Structures are given as structure tokens and as C-alpha cells.
Amino acid sequence: MKRFALFLLIVLPSIGWTQNSNFNWNEIGVKVKPTKRFSATLSGQYRWNVSDKIYSKTLFSARLKYDIAKPFSIQASYRRTWMPNDYFYLDNQDNTYGHRFAAGFSWDLLRTIKSKAKSSLKYTSQYQKEFFKFKREQIYWRNRLSLDLYIGLKRMTPVFSAESFFRTNQYFQLVNNVAVTSGLMNEMRYSFGLNFDLPNNHEIQIGGLYRDFQTKKWDVWVMQFSYFYTIEKKKEKATRTIGVPEF
Predict the structure, then answer these.
(1) What span, in angstroms and rounded, lies between the C-alpha atoms of 1 and 53?
(2) pLDDT tens, 130-161?
(3) Residue pair 96/70 in contact by the 8 Å Cβ criterion
(4) Cut 0.70: pTM above it
(5) Of 53, 92, 145, 151, whose CA is between 20 and 30 Å from 192?
């Protein structure tokens, strides 16, 4: 308990100092694990702009994961987005949508070195492509390093991560009537949280996320809450989601 109090003492003051926009993301999902190596996750997320007191967007996500070896896995995902329509004047619709497809891999560096390590240090890399109704498609290469730190507590794990977003088609221009695009590292994300591995395959995480935009957009603080339930064979021990899934 003393370690938990020290963690809050260090982290929470930094939230109060920010003068940037604040958001709230809430997610609920279910994970199905029919075999030891394969899992599928379905979830829904609601995002709220706390600073402006307005709805931001709603997300539905489907994720597939296959463990090739103990520290290495491949992943694929699909995400459908509903959000306010900035181009209402074009179709007179209040809301619009987006579709995102992604694929990548995850590698647990720490458990590669020590197979029975209780902590986890994961490197995750993915490419994703998102399509919108009235906007140019967005193509990103994302790389994340995440730490699930074992501190000797049975049910609670601190989690930390840092992630970069490189948009490969950030800029668009015509050169001799040929479309040319160029990229930009346009966002960094830093997150922290506490993961609670509850009995009977229930799991929740509370935490914060700082979105450090490298463009002209305002940086954003996000308070997060996630709940997941795992369905799997009774003979197998539940595998924790460890907070928000990789994608």
C-alpha cells in the first residue's frame, strides 16, 4: 500500500499542472481465448472532451492475436469510428465515420532474456491505415515500448508506456502532376496506470495518457478507464490483458 501511495504522489501532481485540453476515454471489452496461443478481443470505447464538455467519438474494435513463441506474437485489428461531422455542409449528416485496419507484432524483450521474469518489457510495432468519408486516408507506423512492473503484489501491476506515431503521408502535394507524399513524426504518447487482475477473469485498469503532438495541435491529457473479461478453458490460467491492448 505504501508503494501505491508513493506512485500516486509522484504522478497525480503532474496532471494538475497541465494547461492543455483534457479528455476522458472509457473502454469495455471481452477477450475470448479458445486455445493457448490464439485470442480474439472485442471492445467498445467512448471518448469525451472534458475541457469543452462535448462528445468526441465512439469506437468499436476487433483484435486478433497469435503467439508464435512465448515472447513473440503477431496481431491484426479492425476499428470502426463514429464521430461528429466537420463536413456537415457536404451531406447534412451530424456524424461521420472512419475505418481502420492494422497489423504488426509484439516482442517481450525481458522474457526473451529471462523466460520466467515476472515483469514484462514489450516492444510493439504496427502499420495502420484509416479511411474517412471526406478526409484523406491516414497511414501510420506506430512503435511502442511498454513496461508491466512486478512489485510483489498479487492483483495489482503498475504499467507504463511510450509510443511514437510516424504518419507516412502527412504532407501531400502535386509535383509535375504527380501526387507526392512525405511523412512526419507527428505524435508521442506517454501513459501510466494501474492494472488490477481480479478473480474470475475480470480485469480493470485506471491511468493517464499524455498526447504530445509535434504539429500545431494542442497537447492533450487523457484519463482512462478500461474493463475486460476473459473467456477461456477452465484448465488454463487467465492471461491478463495488462491494460489497453496493443492496438
Answers:
(1) 35
(2) 999 888 899 999 999 999 999 999 899 999 99
(3) no
(4) yes
(5) 53
